[in-house]
Amino acid sequence: MGLRLLHHFTLFTSATMPGAHLKRIKDCWSIDVPRLAFSYKPLLHAVFAISALHLFKANPNEASLPDIHCIYLEQALREHRLCIGGMTPQTADAVCFTSILLLVGEFATLQDRPVASYKSVNEWMHLVRGSVSVFDAALEIIRRNTHPANIWCITETFPIPLRTNSDAGAFSFLLPTVPDDKDDETALEAYRGAVAHINATWLAMEAKEHPQISCRRLMPTFSPCRHHYATYGGLETLHTNTLWLFNEFFRPSGNT
């Protein structure tokens, strides 16, 4: 099964990763990441996990795939937590890609969650918050290393930031009409900025922006508004609408 999952990831899942419409990023996911995974077990298991998830989307009759996805996901999470504490210049690159795959995989499963429950959203929020410090530590190690890292391929090709003013547009209904006394002004400003970012992303989608570019904008890992998502919890309504955008545009095309 491991060989099948690696084969599927290399040929198919890698092509659905955010930004993979660019050959440089596609090659990174299909060639460089599998190579890194052979020397960093958490990354290998994260590759297997997201590949099983993607394979199940294409073959829903294979009833064993969800369990296989969960098994490899649990292994990746457990091993990743253990390895982060001893991160070295040799593993920092793989740590970044492992974190990305865990985030993308978790984000992809949110489209199937019960609409009335925010448990999965909150779990994803916790994963994002934890990943921010991991990325910061890993990138700091990578910057001090003279050996070129593959992760720069991802960070240096992020789409040009959208022009997000304070306009919430079609999502103005998300803004609080009467501020709560308990609301912190900094948190409210972050919330408004995130809503404006969603509106700008929606407008870009309406203007027929490439779906892979829009997908990268919706993932917080290396986006300009990642700290809006990572620092402030409880933005369930905001995330519900982010996921609605994701479902609206990416479910038919089969993107991870």
TrEMBL record:
Signal peptide: none annotated. This is C6 zinc finger domain protein. It holds the Pfam family Fungal_trans_2. It comes from the Eukaryota. One of its GO terms (molecular function) is DNA-binding transcription factor activity, RNA polymerase II-specific.
